[in-house]
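Memo to structure team: turn this sequence into structure tokens by end of day. - J.P.
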Amino acid sequence: MFKLTSVISDVIEKIKQKDPAQPEFHQAAEEVLVTLEPTVAKHPEFVKAKIYERIVEPDRLIHFRVPWVDDNGEVQVNRGFRVEFNNAIGPYKGGLRFHPSVNMGILKFLGFEQIFKNALTTLPMGGGKGGSDFDPKGKSDEEVMRFCQAFMRELFRFIGPDRDVPAGDIGVGGREIGFMYGYYKKIVNEHTGVLTGKGMEFGGSLIRPEATGYGTVYFAAEMLATRNLDFKGKRVAISGSGNVCQYAIEKVNHLGGLAITASDSNGTIVDEKGISGDKWSYLMDLKNVRRGRIKEYADKYGAKYYEGKSVWDVVKEEGLKIDVALPCATQNELNSSLAEGLVKAGCYCVSEGANMPSNLEAIKIYQDNNFLYGPAKAANAGGVAVSGLEMSQNSMRLLWSREEVDAKLLGIMKSIHKSCLDAADVYGKKGDYLMGANIAGFLKVANAMLAYGIV
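Reply from structure team:
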């Protein structure tokens, strides 16, 4: 790592002093700021305009009460949030997360990451994030609908197609987006592209559900190509079993790889024959329709099941041999010990489908062992990229074909990959995707902020 100037170290220290109870935000900000060190000397104009200090402060934080009634007639009360972090290059854009762990610190980390991720796509989108501590797991469709409507009764005041355009995230899929969009449309009496991830019947885009998983694999393929490698015959470990994991599995299979793992909060499956064909279709039905547990896959197909273990626990403890790791579950699922497990497993490529799934110590191990490491803001930008394409289609009242959208997605991921390598090269760390992604995204936003003056 670089020896920090007082500019960067002072910003990091002030973040920790001002918000001591937000460790996820501290982690995300430090990971970005440390790699921005080479920009300080080259851009004194950023120092003078306090861009580094300004970019870590959200434009606004929105926190509201969400009362709703469950199926027993009992009143429930949850918290709702929206972090509108930075709109220097376009409307705020970022998902909504419904999960008991949601708090302002986690949403600030996600919104901060979103700034640079969105900038890397080349599309005009700022960074934001939102959600609630509501847990849709175990709730009836009617309860989810009532909550989503109550949530939108407050959120609608702060969003719009040219102001802030939310999408889905953990706990927010097509069902939840449909309920929220329907209520928004009822309240404002407008049919606009205010949410992305919509159903095809009311303004959605083809490839949007697949985009994050596909993009993560496309980015990995670009990294592998720098070593004259591809996915053919590669053993791939993928964590999670939601949207990102499901479509990462599909694309790995399409490119000739062998996807052998999936997981949920209860445990992990390992299918040495690969999760493909009818087995992949079963996984999709299990998780998206029946909303069952991953153990049911193991029971049906005779795969190994590890109760209470993450994919990375299994890789480390069972000596599972893999070539590529695609962490697609949640933040900080990989620490230094589990990263060491990847090294021993023979892994040499990590492409992040989840947001910040590797902590700083894990990232150091990847880099020390010459991994191809695709950080989340670059590798999983495919989802928000196609959200941006959905916004474009909504604005133009058009619907592009599946092939058109997939081709645009592949082009965007190739462009992001090149931007990362180019920035890393210019700023003295050739091949460092983490630094390259952070600097490439930062420069675009910083130059826009500079152009606006002190606002």
